[in-house]
Amino acid sequence: MHNLVKVTDSVYWVGANDRKTERFENYMPLPMGVAYNSYVIKDEKTCVIDTVEFGVEGLFMEKLECVLDGKDLDYIVVNHMEPDHSGGLRDLMKKYPNAKVVGNAKTFPMMKAFIHEANEENFHIVKEGDVLDLGHHKLTFAMMPMVHWPESMVTYDTTEKILFSNDAFGSFGALDGGIFDDEVNFDFYEDEMRRYYANIVGKYGMQVQNAIKKLSPLEIKYICPSHGIVWRTDIKRVIKHYDYWSRLEPESEGVVIVYGTMYGNTAKQANAIARELSAQGIKEVKVYDASKTDHSFILSDIWKYKGLIIGSCSHNNALYPKVQPLLHKLQNYGLKNRYLGIFGNMMWSGGGVRGIQAFADALNGNEIVAEAVEVRGNPTLEDYEKLENIARAMAEKIKSHR
Ligand SMILES: Cc1cc2nc3c(=O)[nH]c(=O)nc-3n(C[C@H](O)[C@H](O)[C@H](O)COP(=O)(O)O)c2cc1C
């Protein structure tokens, strides 16, 4: 069969690209698609590491059959029960009824909840540090609770030093030919990787930090995640990114301005702030209308940049409904290490600025750079002066790190 990719002589990538699904988890757009990675180890015993999402399991099974070339399947390792990796599991267990299914104590109750008919006699429960002997390859397991589900674990091949990391070190973006980090221009994938991290794993920074610490003594020659490129050349690079992102440390000195508007007054305010930021020498300024750009992209840039300026018109005594969910997510994910600015628009008793202020008060570890600016209707020259003050204060804070 075509497109059988070898990671090493006896380890194969049998994943599948998905360029059809519009939205990951039915809400995050996938303009560059996504890859569901699965791997097969062909040793005295054969072993599959994770499966794929519903819809691409046919291709996965075809590849697997080809790799096995008539051999039976002995083991299926389930690092994570989320359906984008366990969607192919039901078919796989049916086709290979003798295969032992390897997971931890938290894996199997989830498996039974998703696949009622799963044969418990085949369940093989492993705990931290247990070894699974495939012949030449010896696999061991490390628990990664809440990266990003309770049962998440990683599998480490002690023989070839391969970390099957599941969602850790994963990325959005289909694998457009290049499978390995040295076959692609990573700059091309970086934004999609950060977007994946921020939106999927972003809430669990502390757990990711624990995972990095736990994995640091291991010699790792390959990182085989369950989405995106396989790392074999610049492994330090991907670990460095995850280390930064999980500490919520910004990578760049730019500023995100995100606003919600019905009739354009709040947008005028956003543009004035953006212009002054540029005049003050901030080269990376990203301005987003929260009603138009999907929040997963905005969140990714918020992860990237040091400055965040939020604006909202007033709507029924509260925040504008298209700004509210973004702030909810940032609060839920515990945004920190950012300089914040606040602005908004109103006509009678406000609501927008109040809502942003309540959001900022509920967070720890961020600094508001200037007094919030609330404008009534069309901004006056005096209003513009105050808005530009936010920009100047933000630029000054950011430049102080140069
Ligand atoms: C449906 C609706 C609800 C509104 N609710 C409030 C409100 O609770 N408090 C307030 O001060 N203004 C309220 N306004 C007025 C707008 O906030 C005001 O016109 C503002 O200038 C709109 O800013 P924009 O041009 O950026 O959309 C409301 C307007 C609309 C259309």
TrEMBL record:
Checking InterPro entries in the record gives: Flavodoxin/NO_synth, Flavodoxin_CS, Flavoprotein-like_sf, Intein_C, Metallo-B-lactamas, ODP_dom, RibonucZ/Hydroxyglut_hydro, Rubredoxin-O_OxRdtase
Name recorded for this polypeptide: Flavodoxin/nitric oxide synthase
Homology family? In the N-terminal section; belongs to the zinc metallo-hydrolase group 3 family.
Task: Supply the PANTHER family for this chain.
Answer: ANAEROBIC NITRIC OXIDE REDUCTASE FLAVORUBREDOXIN
Q: Which SUPFAM superfamilies match?
A: Flavoproteins (SSF52218), Metallo-hydrolase/oxidoreductase (SSF56281)
For the Flavodoxin-like domain, which residue ranges apply? 255-395
One molecular function GO term is: oxidoreductase activity
What species does this protein belong to? Ilyobacter polytropus (strain ATCC 51220 / DSM 2926 / LMG 16218 / CuHBu1)
